[in-house]
């Protein structure tokens, strides 16, 4: 259920409302966030802004849970794949400067990549290359905390091969933006970290936005956590792995400043911005589009280690919404909807966190190995104390929440497991789809 710095598109089809009023009374939103904090559902910082100026921001939880160091609205979080927006801006700046072309072939830089002679810079930006996503590999979690060189990463990407013909379709791949990082470093003769600082952070006075190193709470940075009865600190991905695909740290105010400046034409031209916003099979160039009723925002999601993030901007309304978390035991999409409903004057439904109490004997009914004919994924369920834990093939173990009879949920990714002990099967419902797994 948990991935590394893969940005999952969790925010399509947010909510559908017919009318709006901007009566911005944030009392209900604060109550909503209070409930999340009390029940250990969310740690992080949220922000709403209008025309670049914050109208609501709040931090809950801890930057360092073990030492009791509370987070605040200036806490720095790893933003995962929101980094791709910064990388896309740097690429388009290079295009505007005439040192790179969107039609330029990958073969000019990495001829050893499969189909490199057919792959353009534009395809890399829009995930239309077919280059296999190396973070999907089963062995990724065996090395992601260790530094790797350019040669080593390129070797891994080459070994991954091609999943489809270039430009035949779109499919998300972190490999694309890792390669773009190396290309930017070559044409600018500058490390990516310095390029980010020179071209974006310094001009916009983004003091919290940089390529991360080891997390240091004394410098305003937060650790990331997973919840297993209590908050447990997660590992730290080495920055040499995600690079421009996911190695940036920032805070909510910097991200608001960045995306507002981007849409105000302070980083790239309006023509280049339109290229970023051009959506083809759900993908822009370093950008996604997310609907909220008849309104539409542009931005990106992110996830790295225990961090989850969202940055979106509504161009017509000039509204920014940002969610940065370093601990999530809830569905991030529901937090986003609550923020937007609050801003646009809609009622917020406060969550209920009542859980079903199950005995050891109850939980043992679900324990076992399950497989599906629909997808190449196996699920193993084990009992750990009074919790049922899911262990998907090649993914970390995840404690599930019992919500009613035979029903368990993992709310961070909106996954529901419906057990039928009589039939020896479990149905996984996620993203509007259902997959049946039979006990082996």
From TrEMBL:
Keywords: Signal. Residues 1-23 form the signal peptide. This is Beta-lactamase. Pfam families: Beta-lactamase (PF00144). InterPro entries: AmpC-like, Beta-lactam-related, Beta-lactam/transpept-like. Residues 46-333 form the Beta-lactamase-related domain.
């Amino acid at each position: 259920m948990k991935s590394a710095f893969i940005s999952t598109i969790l925010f399509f089809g947010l909510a559908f409302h017919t009318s709006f009023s901007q009566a911005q009374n944030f009392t209900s939103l604060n109550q909503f966030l209070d409930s999340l904090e009390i029940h250990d559902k969310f740690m992080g910082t949220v922000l709403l802004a209008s025309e670049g100026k914050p109208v609501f921001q709040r931090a809950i939880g801890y930057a360092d849970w073990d030492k009791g160091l509370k987070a605040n609205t200036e806490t720095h979080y790893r933003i995962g794949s929101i980094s791709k927006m910064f990388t896309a801006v740097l690429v388009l700046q290079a295009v505007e400067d005439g040192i790179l072309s969107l039609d330029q072939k990958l073969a000019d830089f990495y001829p050893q990549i499969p189909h490199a002679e057919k792959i353009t810079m534009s395809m890399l930006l829009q995930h239309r290359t077919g280059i296999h996503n190396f973070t999907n590999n089963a062995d990724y979690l065996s090395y992601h905390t260790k530094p790797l060189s350019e040669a080593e990463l390129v070797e891994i990407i080459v070994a991954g091969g091609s999943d489809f013909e270039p430009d035949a379709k779109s499919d998300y791949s972190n490999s694309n933006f890792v390669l773009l990082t190396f290309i930017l470093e070559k044409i600018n003769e500058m490390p990516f970290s310095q390029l980010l600082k020179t071209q974006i952070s310094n001009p916009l006075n983004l003091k919290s936005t940089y390529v991360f190193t080891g997390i240091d709470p004394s410098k305003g940075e937060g650790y990331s956590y997973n919840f297993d009865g209590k908050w447990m600190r997660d590992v730290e991905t080495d920055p040499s792995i995600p690079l421009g695909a996911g190695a940036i740290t920032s805070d909510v105010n910097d991200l608001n400043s960045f995306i507002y400046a981007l849409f105000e034409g302070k980083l790239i031209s309006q023509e280049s911005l339109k290229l970023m916003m051009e959506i083809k099979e759900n993908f822009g160039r370093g950008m996604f589009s997310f609907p909220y009723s008849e309104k539409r925002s542009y931005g990106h999601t992110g996830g790295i280690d225990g961090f989850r993030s969202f940055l979106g901007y509504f161009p017509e309304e000039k509204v920014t919404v940002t969610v940065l978390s370093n601990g999530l035991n809830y569905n991030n999409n529901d937090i986003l909807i609550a923020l937007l409903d609050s801003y646009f004057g809609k009622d917020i439904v406060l969550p209920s966190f009542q859980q079903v109490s199950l005995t050891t004997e109850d939980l043992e009914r679900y324990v076992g190995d399950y497989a599906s004919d629909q997808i190449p994924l196996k699920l193993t369920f084990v009992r750990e104390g009074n919790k049922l834990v899911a262990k998907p093939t090649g993914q970390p173990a995840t404690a599930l929440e019992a919500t009613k009879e035979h029903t368990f949920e993992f709310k961070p990714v909106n996954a529901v497991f419906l057990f039928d002990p009589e039939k020896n099967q479990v149905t996984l419902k996620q993203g509007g789809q259902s997959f049946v797994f039979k006990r082996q």
